[in-house]
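tool_call: predict_structure(chain=1)
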Amino acid sequence: MPTSPPPPAASADSAEQLRLQLVDAWSLALERLGSELVGGSHWTGSLSTSALSTATAVSALVQARKAGCVDSASELLVEECLLVACRWLAEHQNADGGFGDTDRSHSNIATTLLVIAAWELAEFSRAEPQRVSQAWDYVQRQGKWDGLRRRYGKDKTFVVPILSNCALAGMVPWKQVSPLPFEAAWLPQELYRWARMPVVSYAVPALVAIGQARFHFAPPGNPVIRALRRRAIAPTLQVLRNMQPASGGYLEAVPLTSFVLMNLAATGHGQLPVAQDCIRFILNSRLADGSWPIDTNLATWLTSLSVSAVARRGKVIRLGLDTGSADRTEPVRARTIRWLLSCQHRSRHPFTGANPGGWGWTDLSGAVPDADDTPAALLALHSVDLSSPQWQRLRHEVHTAVGGGLRWLLRLQNRDGGWPTFCRGWGKLPFDRSGTDLTAHAIRAIQAWLPQLGRLQAVARQPLPARRQLESAVARGVR
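tool_result:
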């Protein structure tokens, strides 16, 4: 069978031209990274505008205003926010009549129902009946309520909040909203995974607020259950407060915080500090165009990736591509490493009960340590050449932090050998099940630091996992 002749060897001139192009690309990327540093220490980036977040924020603020929970100083601001946000949603309706999670996403039934609910609550449907009709047409084509339930199956993490929002807007009776066992949040946090929660671990605030609203509007017929749930209202409201970060936003996320606020306001709890702090967070999270993003920022994640990228300089030098400009990044990286170390969680987390030692996605108070950002931080710290004299002062801090991070990862590993996002052992729903991407990331981080385990043990303030434990964890993860 005839074969094609091999391509001609690249000339020396073309190889040099390619090398110069790579030099330019490297220098431009490095310059761009340096120009986007915040305070000379870290990177924040930005998140896309979101119809999902904007719709839930509108519903929450309308419900809070109707319940008299908005103070007079914020009344005009809320009024303006609602008007601009409803217009923003109208401008970002897709051609098929539906809405996607972001301004660039395909339509889905969940976000479209949330937008309709927001418009109904804000009475925007009177001004734009055609847009509302188009959205309803899309929902009908997707199967309406049965279509929504099919989308999520047995996972109540999303379908119940969406239905509760629609119930508040009068679109569906409360009896169609599944009751949530909010009284389970009264248990000690370490027992949550044994309580067979119908939502994922991070959604406990929604479980409490929505569960109480469902009980308020459609109480069960069983008098024993009624009595138990009535008694659980006050202590589970305290659980909500204990989980709330200083920013007021659960997970720094507008949708989760909005679901909590709208249901608290609807049940007469809008004046509580927990609800007032939710209002503050939502108003503070608004973007300049009047919309809301899903989350506030991903500073820790972006910083970890950027540190690892800048650390590739050694490989670039070996390829003959270094221009010397990378030298200017060293002082920046020292400040950045200190910033990254400061983001490690050093105490038991009030939201998930996570052990100390992990990293979340941001330095803001609502971050929760997880199995993606912790490996990213460990790999970023591994990229630093700690043998260099310039890192002498930070060497002990880095080794101590890495020891804590490895210990945290080992404790999080599920029985099946994989790693979940937040909590070990829940195991049935997304985010709590083991994920291949998370597991691969954890394996990379452990493998990177295994050769230096002896140094880590020499400075560790707490006992580190033995080498055989870490190697066993990697083998189980690979399987």
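agent: The longest helix spans residues 12-35. Proceeding to next step.
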